[in-house]
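Data deposition worksheet. Section B asks for the primary sequence of the deposited chain exactly as it was used as input, without tags or linkers unless they were present during the calculation. Section C holds the resulting structure in token form. Section D is free text for depositor observations; keep each observation to a single sentence. Incomplete worksheets are returned to the depositor.
Section A, Depositor: J.P.
Section B:
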Amino acid sequence: MLFRYNTSITPKPLAIITPLKKSHIQAAISCSKKHGIQIRVRSGGHDYEGLSYVSSIVPYVVIDLVNFRNITVDVPTKTAWVEAGAQLGEVYYRIAEKSRTLAFPAGVCHTVGVGGHFSGGGSGMMMRKHGLSVDHIIDAQLIDVKGRILDRKSMGEDLFWAIRGGGGNTFGVVIAWKLSLVKVPATVSVFNVTRTSLEQNLTKLVHRWQYAVSKFHEDLFSRIFIETVNSTNGEIAIRTTFTSLFLGDVDRLLPIMQETFPELGLMKQDCVEMSWIESVIFFAELPLNTSLDVLLDKTLEITISGKGKSDYVNEPIPGIALEGIWKRLYQVDVQSFQLQFSSYGGRMNEISESSTPFPHRAGTLFQIQYLVFWVEDDIRTFELYVNWIRSLYSYMAPYVSKNPRGAYINYRDLDLGVNNPNGSTSYKQASVWGAKYFGRNFDKLVQVKTAVDPDNFFRNEQSVPPISSWVM
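Section C:
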């Protein structure tokens, strides 16, 4: 939970419900409908706009699925049932407990709740090899607006399609997901290579990376983190960290890097071989000797505020435009922001954009995530940092996807537009943000929503609206 949603003026729920069994959720839905109370569903709390626990639609209650975290792994069938309140780290741990050569493609941050992560698509370090989390979900259990418990067969393929990427708190309360696990090699390789603007031509290196990612082997995922740091001589420098997961050993990795991205100068001593589950610890930026038990730690304390935005890039950003980014990065305090470029391609190019609601597939070079953070809890600081990230986002418009300009729903951004608090909205109003998140899949999501929740009971500021809620 971001600190900016923990203030005296933040709307508070009438109650926080922590159900112990399915009937408690059914009762909460029934009671809320009867008394005109809205529901927010929380699985982990990583929510950029706080929509899983804060509502402008009042009165409201929060259904916190913290007690729904059971995980059952079946190695012979390579499947697992995971309840929606479990965190990604718990999922990874329980799979590794049974097999070190099975895994599941999902996010880096191990404290993210699976309910929200899967509801928005679920990108991660293995998506170039295996696609998204939702590409490997084969069944689910959902409690609908009528209080019925539905599985894939009883809910039908349209609703099953919609919940795998169409956004949380929209179609019902998903209480469990059935996952198809993927095979991983016994040994994977990882590296973090850091370069700064004071050492070499950083613009040329980042520019070249954009051309290299489309040629990477599907076993190789690459991400770069861009931020500013204080150098030893007191100057402020831009630091770029090239971080990668390779599903194989170093002897296979090095020739691939030397052929596709020699400019990085990757050397054997830069790389570390480990098991896949150990790579989860590595990318969580924890010491390599950290016990895997940390993945079961359910505590999450965030004492900073932040704002996030996202983009998709289809063609390399010109060097002169990168220079413009660096110029804007110097305008904010050191370590108060981060840009992330995450490579696409591979398996992502092979899956149809209509196979799930998540449309950002073939033709996407990489995704950008913009993050800015601040500590001071006052309106002046809030406006300073939010206006800065909005300005950077505006600057990037010519260099990212267009018609529509894409965005990732798991990096929720209310700047893109919101529904009316009373539940009514116009198709034109909703389709602005809907097209950014879902592309041409938005219309089908509207049809599914209209069929399963015509009165728009499950809703938030950016939930898919049914046709019955449209106004002229």
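Section D:
The chain has a mean pLDDT of 93.
The first helix runs from residue 22 to 35.
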